[in-house]
Design a protein that fits this description.
The chain is α+β, with helices and mostly antiparallel strands and 241 residues long. The protein has helices spanning 119-125, 127-135, 138-155, 159-167, and strands spanning 8-9, 18-27, 36-41, 45-50, 56-59, 63-69, 73-81, 87-95, 99-105, 109-114, 182-183, 206-208, 215-217, 239-240. The strands form four sheets. Strands 5-4-3-2-10-9-6 form a seven-stranded antiparallel beta sheet. It has a three-stranded antiparallel beta sheet with strand order 13-12-14, with no helix packed on it.
Amino acid sequence: MTLSMHFDFTPLSRTPVLEPCIVANAAGYDLFTNETVTLAFGTKCVMVKAKNRDPIPLPYFELAELTIENREVATTGETTQGLAGREHISATTQPTLQSFISFVTHLGELHLFYRGMPPTVLRMALAEAFAVWRQHQPEWLEKRRKVVDAYADSEGLDAQTRDALKARLLTPIVPPASAAPLSFPSAGFPTDDMPAPDTFAPATRLGVCPSCNAEIPYFSEECPQCRALFGPDSAWQVRPL
């Protein structure tokens, strides 16, 4: 029996599309090492798009593990002239900007490199996706229901209030869209010869450049107006609106 899974894809409005991502390894998926793909996070699944091929869905209910990390470090050195003409060498070690994204699913594993954000920032940017994924984890839901029961018992709450508190665990992260959701794999992702449709682009969080006060994307690494840098070593950071 051949199983064909199609999902109506509604993108998470506060979650960025990650492009480009480089495949480090893939087991169980028709992807190749060093292939460039795009990651988009929706309300029901993660979509992986490779050039000239249909998007590959990673349903949240099939996703066992989702991790973001970076164990690589970069060391930079500087030589300075000290007293009596002696040279002093100083070194600075810090994590590199690259993030490693790993998916462990019912079918196999997918490991990707992404250079757009360091792991801590990327984890915050994907908060919506992690919240939706947790709602598809029976073990997590059962633990939270037990917490609700313990709270209801300690406070002497009635059954109706107890049920209402448990229902909050399944409150949709994204409100229902007024327009019909995009359908995959026939639509939704940018094709190889045309830009992505407007309905696919996620909302962009804006911030203020501390140097020139221009409104720029909050996760910018450089101000497009004054070229101020906001990397890990910079004293400047984009201010939220």
